[in-house]
Amino acid sequence: MAGPRERLEAERAAAASRLAGVEREFGSVVESARQANTDDEHDPEGATIAFERQHIAALISQARERLAEIEAALARLDAGGYGRCVQCGQPISLERLAVRPAAATCIRCAERQQR
Q1: Residue 31 half-sphere exposure toward CB, CA atoms < 13 A
Q2: What confidence score (pLDDT) does residue 34 get?
Q3: What is the pTM of this model?
C-alpha cells in the first residue's frame, strides 16, 4: 500500500493531466469558433458554443481547485500536519484519507460545512 506522499503525488499527476486536457479542449473550442467566424449572439449555434465554453471553463476551474487542494495537502504533509483536521485539530480517519488523500477536514467538520 502506498504512503500518503505517493498517493498525493499520484493524485497531483492525475489532476495536472486532467487540467492540461481540459485546457487543450478549451483552446480547441475557442480556435474552432474563431475559424468559423461565428457570432455567438446572432448565430443559432451561438448559445451551444457559449454553453460549451462555459462548461469547459467550469471544468478548468474545478481541476485547478483540485490541484490546489492536493498542493495544500502536500504542504501539510511537509509541515507535519497531514492527517489532522485544519478546523478542529482532531485526526482525520484513515478511511477518509484512503478515499480523499487531500482531505483537510474530518468527517464531522466536513458535514458542518455542508449545512
Answers
A1: 6
A2: 73
A3: 0.81
